[in-house]
TrEMBL record:
Protein name: Mitogen-activated protein kinase kinase kinase 4
Family to which the UniProt record says this protein belongs: Belongs to the protein kinase superfamily. STE Ser/Thr protein kinase family. MAP kinase kinase kinase subfamily.
Species this chain originates from: Amphibalanus amphitrite
Transmembrane segments: none
Superkingdom of origin organism: Eukaryota
GO molecular function: ATP binding; protein serine/threonine kinase activity
Keyword ATP-binding included in the entry's annotation: yes
Keyword terms: ATP-binding, Kinase, Nucleotide-binding, Serine/threonine-protein kinase, Transferase
């Protein structure tokens, strides 16, 4: 189906049910215990979680030279691709719907003490003729010990620079990061949907983005968004993670008070585009 940094993804069939699955193939080096342990931790983190807007993991097979990870099949491309394929980004009623779905997925993870740490459009997959999104690629996710994130509990420069919260850049200094980092990334996805571009499109490399954020900068709020959308982003783009809104608080915001059923949300997308995205391959980064 496609190839990413960490392996190829194929379409597979469950012989018992006949359902399609995505199968990620990862080549192993001799005595590659680190890769096996990393995948095992990823699967253990998601063990027992079943949510409509999270990509399901079915299991793993380990052989001498390769490892196969079986996941839910999402064959309609990514939110990144959809946003970039529409002039000037997606219409707001679609952004609201997708944001509500993504927020629901993040809330589920946070309720299970899991931080995703790499939320971006390229890791969000589309299904049901683009009506439903699913957050996937949990390779950077981590399970925190305490119900409330402890200072310095999670460290490390992990994620995608344009979508990373300020505290992620400074986590090496001992401040650490927690659930609030995912909220900043959520807002970056809203910007991506509204503009069709990643945050800070004028900056070319990681160090420029790091400097901009470190100096107190945040992604610009798109002019096309309503006052409700702008206020939603303002609650997310707070540099102090202790003052940033939580997933539970954002769930009550008017920006995401939308119905999740009904085809009228998709009437503004060209049928040719919709048809194209129902044939997209499952992505992997």
């Amino acid at each position: 189906m496609c190839q990413g940094r960490f392996g190829r993804v194929y379409t597979a069939v469950n012989n018992k049910t006949g359902d399609l699955m995505a199968m990620k193939e990862i080549h192993l080096q001799p005595n590659d215990h680190r890769t096996i342990r990393s995948v095992a931790e990823e699967l253990k983190t998601l063990e027992g979680i079943n949510h409509r807007h999270l990509v399901k993991y079915f299991g793993v097979e380990i052989h001498r030279e390769e490892m196969f990870i079986f996941m839910e099949f999402c064959g309609e491309g990514t939110l990144e691709s959809l946003s970039a394929s529409v002039d000037c980004g997606l219409p707001e009623h679609l952004i609201r719907r997708y944001t509500k779905q993504l927020l629901s997925a993040i809330t589920c993870l946070h309720d299970h003490h899991i931080i995703h740490r790499d939320i971006k459009g390229a890791n969000i997959f589309l299904t049901d003729e683009c009506r439903c999104l699913k957050l996937g690629d949990f390779g950077c996710s981590v399970k925190i010990v305490a119900h409330t994130t402890m200072q310095g509990e999670v460290k490390g420069l992990v994620g995608t620079p344009a979508f990373m919260a300020p505290e992620v850049y400074t986590s090496s200094s001992g401040e650490g990061q927690g659930r609030a980092a995912d909220i900043w990334s959520l807002a970056c996805c809203v910007v991506e949907m509204a503009t069709g571009k990643r945050p800070f499109p004028d900056l070319e490399d990681t160090y420029q983005i790091m400097f901009r954020v470190g100096m107190g900068g945040s992604p610009a709020v798109p002019d096309k968004l309503s006052a409700e959308g702008g206020h939603f982003l303002e609650l997310c783009f707070v540099h102090d993670p202790k003052l940033r809104a939580s997933a539970q608080q954002l769930d009550d915001h008017p920006f995401v008070k939308v119905e999740l059923d009904g085809d009228e949300y998709f009437s503004s997308l060209p049928q040719s585009l919709m048809a194209g995205f129902t044939r997209q391959d499952y992505g992997v980064t």
